[in-house]
Amino acid sequence: MKFVKENLNLILCLIIFCILTGIMFYFIDKKEGFHEDEIFSYGASNSKFCSTFLSYRQVDNLDTVMKDKSVINTLKKFIFYKLNPKEYEKVENDMGLTNSNSIWRNKEDAIEYMKIDTINEALDFFTVYWNTGRDVHPPLFYFLVHIVSIFFYNTFSKYIIFIINLVFFLATCVIIKKILKKIDKDYLYVPTLILYGMSIGAISTVMFQRMYAMLTFFTVYFLYINLKVYFNNFKLDKKLKIELCIVTILGFLTQYYFCIYAVFVALVMIIIMLKCKYKEYIKIYFMQFVKSAVVGVLIFLPSIYHIFFSYRGAGSSGNEYTFVENLLEFIKNTFLAFSLANVLGVGITIIIIVSLIYNFRKSDRKALLCILIIPIILNFICVVKMSPYRSLRYVMNILPIISLVVMLIIESIFKNKKLSVCILSVFAISLSMYGLATNNVKYLYLGYNDFIKVAEENKDSRYVLVCQTVFNHIQNVPEMMIYKESMIVEPERLNLLKDNKEIIEDEEFILSIKTWLGNTDEILEEVLQNTGFTNYELLLDSPKKAANCRIYRISK
Description:
The protein is mainly alpha-helical. It has 2 domains: 10-15 and 162-438, no CATH class; 448-555. 62% of the residues lie in helices and 6% in strands. The chain contains 27 helices and 6 strands. Strands 1-3-2-4-6-5 form a 6-stranded mixed beta sheet, sandwiched between helices. It is globular.
């Protein structure tokens, strides 16, 4: 009994960790389908041919022109052709690579795209590097996916990235505890962990098979290191310098959005140093970021193009919505991440702001509050302005810090420590239970198992997917791993089905049409006209969240 009393907080933490892990396993078991970006995570990590599973050839044009046995030569070509698109177009035309007629891709092609099935692929880290260089993201996450995939040799499993995400999620929870201990608020760990760890936002972060759980960890860790610097009176010993540099480099190599938060934290830290007359430490602190930037860029040279010249880089204009429209949508998404309806969310936000203003005026820890609060506000505003989509993913990394700040502010209202912990725990549990009961976790794609079932029942048939072939088509690759052969056709190129010998020799084939194209019936009619087939049977009209497809059996 004495042991329990002395270690009650530790025991509660372990229990909550077990509960959180169980919740994550429960939801990954429910996850059926994938966002196209999630499929890309596997393709970019494991495919030796092309990171987007082309509809018209196995190897990408750019790979054919530029990929070289020499890493340096490949990078030189990459930079040259990226800066001289007309030169690339000329080479492409000279090589006769502009033909984009859709071809049949067999299931072995799809399987190769998704998993590692040869020893040479398992050891091919340069292709992972190259694929991410071709994309607009850094490579660290993809390297980890590739490494874990080796342990799932010749197998595709949703648990590959889930394992990575779960590890980084639990590590984030540990860092939250360290932060609270550093600021002498470790008694708030249980309610803070419940508020974040059991939130819809945290569960969605782990379910989303992208790099955002990693990004969240490095974001929170970066804050923790800066708090250590702050409480060390801004003196950076050798250990702190190394830790700050390593986390900055790894965060940069995980997702460029890390840089946004890091810049704002560093800015606040430098302003505080100036105000506290610690000018001699500013240069030392700033130089750690210069070193980190140089090392990060040298490790991943394509980052120069990604950051300064790509459509997702510094010049990104965001999306077609106005700033105010984006702001309201991101605020709504953040409320929903904590299971707050708009009215309740606004009410709690007002209470938090009023409490913050009142406590900030009398607080003797104004600098600490600035380090915690100002960067997440500026980060939020910057993401609203730059993000290409109005998606929760772009603020996932600051959700644990928001949870921590909310707990600190609400706790300051109460004078009794034990009472505040009890009330905050009830508050956090209530929100979490409501969120779990309503089951609004994102990225589960419930209903996609029906697509797999149709594919299994027709695995000896050919499969035609009508879709824009730029990127969205890879959402259906799990089905293509089952069908005998697959063809991906754009709606404006349905004439490619005319006199197609593979279709002519079959009595029937499976047709899948992306419903967001908006003219499903017209596409179906045009397919019938081009193939000469007269009969069709609707096999599946999918729920929106599964894959946005309508599937038919087309027969003569």
